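URGENT: need a sanity check before tomorrow's submission.

F., can you look over the Glutathione-regulated potassium-efflux system ancillary protein KefF record below? I want to be sure the sequence and structure line up before it goes out.
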Amino acid sequence: MKVLWLAAHPEERSLNGSLKDEGVRALREHGHEVQVSDLYAMKWNPVVDADDFDHPSEERLHISNAAERALSNGTLSPDIRAEQEKVLWADTLIVQFPLWWYGMPAILKGWFDRVFVKGFAYGFSDPDTGATLRYGDGPLTGKRAMIVVTAGARPGTLGPRGVNGDLNDLLFPLHHGTFWYTGMSAVPPFLVSSADRTTPAAFEDTAAQLRTRLLELPTTPPLPFRRQNSPDYDPETLTLHPDLAPNLTGPAIHYTDAPR
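Structure tokens as predicted:
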């Protein structure tokens, strides 16, 4: 595998930092190539503005169009382009972060905001049918992604009946709205619960589990999302046909194994 490890934690000596080091070491020891984007260490700028696109200050800024134009004419900010080159190089993306207020840290959200621009991660159509290529058919199709997430929540509380909600529902915007939207297949996430109460023995066990998950990535079945350009959705309204998952709403209906 060619792996881009995207990390977002401000303390290198943290549980996240230690797990990153363990994961990268395991992958390299087994012959996989790894590049690391440690956003805090890089002092990554998460804020989208006109400087990203060398956009004239006197003109109204339309983000998606300005980004696409800058990408095409070579004026996209060099730090963005460097990250895009890493994404293009990789066949696997590991996204690691602590769960803060039910989401990813702002610096990581800003990485996606700035890097996954129109003309790179979305904005393409099928030349034969004119169908928009997204949700399973995007420009990053063929790549895999896995989230490694730590949480202070106790085991079970990020489950289907847990008070914190189901983890896959919480991660749906990233799994479905970012990975799958751009064509990447998302495999089930790796969750570390009770992160702020980890003991040395628990760390060793967690690190061993992470190493196993990483080495099994090429054969791990991805989350079974429905493709937008499949018969499951009405092509005009892009809504799921009423006979599919008729008793469900929300994220669950977008999995192919949802009850029919």
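My own read: The two ends are 36 Å apart (CA to CA). The mean pLDDT is 94. If you see anything odd, call me.
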